[in-house]
Amino acid sequence: MCATIKRGLTYMPIGIKIVVLVENDYIRGDILKEHGLSFWIEYKGNRILFDTGQSDIVVDNAKKLGVDLSTANAVVLSHGHYDHCGGLSSVLNLASKAKIFLHPSASQERYSQKPTGTRFIGMSKESIEALDGRDVVWTKEPTRIFDGVFVTGGIDRVNDFEDVGGNFFLDKDCKIADDIVDDQSLFIESDDEVVVLLGCAHSGIVNTLDCISKFTKNKPIKAVIGGTHLVNASESRLEKTMEAIGKYDLSMISPLHCSGNKAVEKIRETFPDLYSYSAGGTTFSL
Ligand SMILES: [Fe+2]
Ligand SMILES: [Fe+2]
């Protein structure tokens, strides 16, 4: 499926290609799915992998989608959860020259607590070891990856209605809350517009868009694609999020991965002209 921006009157292509390599769902049967996320981005001659899913299926799916991971010049991690970093070692074996961009706290030990029990959800030993000897850029602050491509680094939590979206902890006993300070988003800034890719948006989608707008001096955000982690959001948070999203003059929003059915439905109902379904195998040409 090829998705393009819907508001044709204002749309001028800016030459960005984004392929959803891994997602919880797929758009065609030969693409594998898992709880995870990975995007391939081509812009101004550069090729960037943003997140790696939770396993090696990123490699299989890339082949099926005609993406050559060995040509990546950058691999960017949105945060250190297993479902975004699990394919890192396989990817880096192929992308032998790629620079790696991640927040220094991405590799910390971390757990999630659910009624079914507590489990480790951090970067695997294999993923952490894959960074050894590689060209790593630590991204605490907004960082330029290539011409027009940036990662936010840590995002200020400014508003009073967004939280990390779950019971996340830094210790096995679940006593020290994990604020997921390593959460970051990638954005592509053309002369006139900005395209945003979210990993899980544990900082909150609104805090994230506000952070990017501040950096770009309020350049219009054309498209937002990725995980919004609204899966556990209250009705009040959803309402406030819709209100805040409405203030941005978006042309397209495609919530993925950890967004949750209820939030996706809310976005679809609130912004029927902007909502775009995507999943593993989707290519956006923006
Ligand atoms: Fe995730
Ligand atoms: Fe996450």
Any chance you could write out the topology, listing elements then pairs?
Layout (H helix, E strand, L loop, with lengths): L1 E2 L13 E6 L15 E6 L2 E5 L6 H8 L9 E3 L5 H4 L2 H7 L4 E4 L8 E4 L2 E4 L4 H5 L6 E3 L4 E4 L2 E3 L16 E2 L16 E4 L4 E5 L6 H11 L5 E7 L7 H13 L4 E5 L4 H10 L12 E3 L1
Parallel strand pairs: 1-17, 4-5, 5-6, 6-9, 14-15, 15-16
Antiparallel strand pairs: 2-3, 2-17, 3-4, 7-8, 7-12, 10-11, 11-13, 13-14
Bound molecules: fe (ii) ion (2 copies).
Number of helices: 7
Q: List unreliable stretches of 5+ residues.
A: 1-10
Number of strands: 17
CATH structural architecture: 4-Layer Sandwich
Biggest beta sheet attributes:
8 strands, mixed
Quaternary structure of the protein: single chain
Q: Structural class, judged by helices and strands? A: alpha/beta
Elements, N to C (H/E) = EEEEHEHHEEEHEEEEEEHEHEHE
**Distance N to C terminus:** 14 Å
Average pLDDT works out at 95
CATH topology: Metallo-beta-lactamase, Chain A
Number of domains: 1
Proportion of helical residues: 10-25%
CATH top-level class: Alpha Beta
Strand content: 15-25%
Q: Write down the Rg.
A: 17 Å
Give a description of the structure:
The chain contains 7 helices and 17 strands. A hairpin with a 2-residue loop joins β7 (111-114) and β8. The longest helix is centred in the C-terminal third of the chain and has 13 residues, at 235-247. By secondary structure, the protein is α/β, with parallel strands linked by helices. It is globular and about 45 Å long. One fe (ii) ion binds next to α2. One fe (ii) ion (FE2) is lined by residues 37, 81, 83-84, 200, 227, 257-258.
